[in-house]
Amino acid sequence: MTNFTLQQDEKEKLFQLALIARETSYSPYSKFRVGAALLSEDGTFFKGCNVENASFGAAICAERTAYVKAVSEGHQKFKALAVSTDQVEFVSPCGICRQFIAEFSSPNMPVFFLNNKGEHKEYTFGQLLPFAFTSDDM
């Protein structure tokens, strides 16, 4: 069972890595930079940024990048996710990312949104996708 209690230092590192990941965004078309940081159950952190493509359907969001990196390294259980943008308003993961996150995360996992002022909001993943389609539905 995943423990969703985050230590202050874990939260600070998660936020810092999400901001760093945003800086590596490849977004020449939209200019909409997004960074994500993911904390695995064993304490390993993974960063992801959005990577656009001239063929827009080939682009990948920051959240999915972080999850793909983690899963490719053998991690499938997670404690927290942070998402950062350059926007004043808080921006949540898109619908495709929410469904992707549902594959690997509990409804109780905290998800943090970071804005360009250094402020954050916290939600649970279940608040973002209350009726997620999961393997239990198959």
Summarize the structure.
This protein is an alpha+beta fold and 138 residues long. It is 28% helix and 22% strand.
SSE layout and pairing:
Layout (H helix, E strand, L loop, with lengths): L7 H16 L10 E7 L4 E5 L12 H11 L5 E8 L9 H8 L7 E5 L5 E5 H4 L10
Parallel strand pairs: 3-4
Antiparallel strand pairs: 1-2, 1-3, 4-5
Number of helices: 4
Write down the overall geometry.
globular
Main β-sheet description: 5 strands, mixed
Calculate the mean pLDDT score and round it: 96
Give the uncertain stretches in residue-range form. none
The SSE order reads HEEHEHEEH
Indicate the radius of gyration in whole angstroms: 14 Å
Give helix % range.
25-40%
Secondary structure tally: strands: 5
- N→C terminal distance: 22 Å
Which range does the strand content fall in? 15-25%
Query: Numbering strands along the chain, what is their spatial order in the largest sheet?
Result: 2-1-3-4-5
SS-based class: alpha+beta
How would you describe the overall organization of this protein?
The protein is of the alpha+beta class and 138 residues long. Helices cover 28% and strands 22% of the residues. It contains four helices and five strands, in the order H-E-E-H-E-H-E-E-H. It has helices at 8-23, 62-72, 95-102, 125-128, and strands at residues 34-40, 45-49, 78-85, 110-114, 120-124. The protein has a five-stranded mixed β-sheet. The longest helix is centred in the first third of the chain and has 16 residues, at 8-23. The mean pLDDT is 96.
